[in-house]
Amino acid sequence: MYLQELFYPVTEVGKWLLSMAYWEDSLKSFVFCLVFTYIIFSEGSVDELKVEAPPAMNKVEQLLAVQNAISQAEEFIQDGNIVLLKFRALLLSIFPQASEIAVALLAVSLFVAFVPSKYIILFSFWRHLRGTRL
């Protein structure tokens, strides 16, 4: 229940981005694409990132907060691995010839892992601007 409430803004933004990607309103999508392209190419590189600790916490509390965050990240990763393993098992049990699909999913995941997201987003809008579909 709480997690659903926390992810509500994320799902709304996701729906809005999908409507932009499917060009349901071409003028809004075009303006979004232009603005996003400007942001991508105008942002400079960050040489230094300074993170300041909140002053209300002492060192022990900070360490406990970091430990708690790491534990939560491990739980999310484990849950994600479980979902992926279940999906793989279902895919391979339903379709014995799913090895081709598994290779395609692996290729897509490697692409997403190693190509910066700004180029992936730019590519997804670029093909719509050219008027062609892949």
Automatic annotation (TrEMBL):
This is Uncharacterized protein. It comes from Camellia lanceoleosa.
